[in-house]
Design a protein that fits this description.
single chain; 329 residues; alpha+beta; 35% helix; 23% strand
């Protein structure tokens, strides 16, 4: 398998170039293949969410608080702020006896921009979005899960997002174990939602996703939640949801801001970690699908992935004037 980069083409000429680093490993951490620097250290951002949700299962909160599979899925997700997604989070908070103000995450524009938007084939799709608020933040499910974990252990709710809080130490322990990396070597900063953003090598991130694919017990509850409810992990027009729908029960994947993806190939027991070095989100989707193609893993519903495999560039008149594509080097 050769290295590749992703470029945008406009008028037949290369306009931008997006370099790719990636690792594909098995559950032992052994490299099956790599692209660029597999040991590149990067903040994994929201690609950490399946690991951050795992303590809810391991520590008994799922049973003690009757956390549903839908709630566990939204805890793993970066949702679109679609109204039904936000309703899952809102009901979970209410059951915990908590208010929206308990969430550290701030409001932002929904990841699905606009109530109606043009699809790749020129048709319009209507999406009912919740107005900006903390509970409508794409990370509100993760934050609610962290608050639930604090209530499970009777830890202080205040400060649950900072690195020194037991919630974050618990999450770091899970990442350290699954990703096979000493906790003291995991970098920490602040994510866009206020929670700790962990940084680790791509090979370690891929190892964590490989172990999600192969582990028994609690990890399987997280995997099952994501594969059963892929719409709660992202939403309409988002690769995470489309990929899990295109490979039903065979793949889980989670985007991270800054050009990151983590994925588990469940049947093969493989983990994948992707980083587009300049952080371009569309280039990252092309990169992930290129790696899956190199691995010979064919989608059952490939048509769901067309818009992500070679995203088009539109001008202000909604005319196609360019596209993204992978190029071997």
């Amino acid at each position: 398998m050769s290295n590749f980069f992703v470029r945008t083409v406009r008028g037949g000429d290369t306009e931008t170039r997006h370099n790719v680093a990636a690792a594909v490993v098995d559950h032992t951490g052994a490299l099956r293949c790599s692209y660029g620097d597999a040991e590149l250290v990067t903040p994994i951002r929201s690609a950490a969410k399946p690991f951050q949700a795992l303590p809810l299962v391991e520590d008994g909160a799922v049973e003690a608080f009757d956390i549903s599979s839908r709630e566990l899925a939204v805890a793993c997700g970066s949702h679109n702020s679609e109204e039904y997604q936000v309703a899952v989070v809102r009901a979970w908070l209410e059951r915990l006896g908590l208010q929206e103000d308990h969430l550290v995450c701030g409001p932002h524009r929904p990841l699905a921009k606009g109530l109606g938007f043009v699809c790749h084939d020129g048709t319009w799709e209507e999406v009912e979005l919740a107005p900006p608020s903390r509970v409508a933040s794409n990370c509100s499910g993760k934050h609610t899960g962290m608050l639930n974990l604090a209530k499970q252990h009777e830890w202080e709710l205040d400060g649950y997002a900072v690195a020194q809080h037991p919630v974050q130490r618990n999450c770091l322990s899970v990442i350290s174990q699954l990703c096979d990396i000493d906790a003291t070597k995991v970098g920490g900063a602040v994510d866009g939602c206020g929670v700790v953003s962990w940084a680790l090598p791509l090979r370690a991130l891929a190892t964590g996703y490989a172990r999600l694919a192969t582990a028994d017990g609690p990890a399987q509850a997280v995997v099952s939640a994501m594969t059963t409810h892929p719409d709660l992990v992202a939403g309409k027009r988002r690769l995470c949801t489309a990929l899990m729908q295109a490979y039903p029960g065979k793949i889980i994947t989670k985007v991270g801001a800054g050009g990151v993806y983590g994925a588990s190939v469940l049947d093969e027991g493989l983990g994948i970690a992707i980083k587009v070095l300049d952080g371009d989100a569309k280039a990252a989707s092309v990169a992930l699908l290129t790696v899956l193609s190199d691995l010979g893993i064919n989608a059952q519903q490939a048509e769901l992935l067309t818009r992500f495999a070679s995203p088009v560039i539109l001008n202000t008149n909604r005319e196609v004037v360019g596209r993204y594509e992978a190029v071997r080097n």
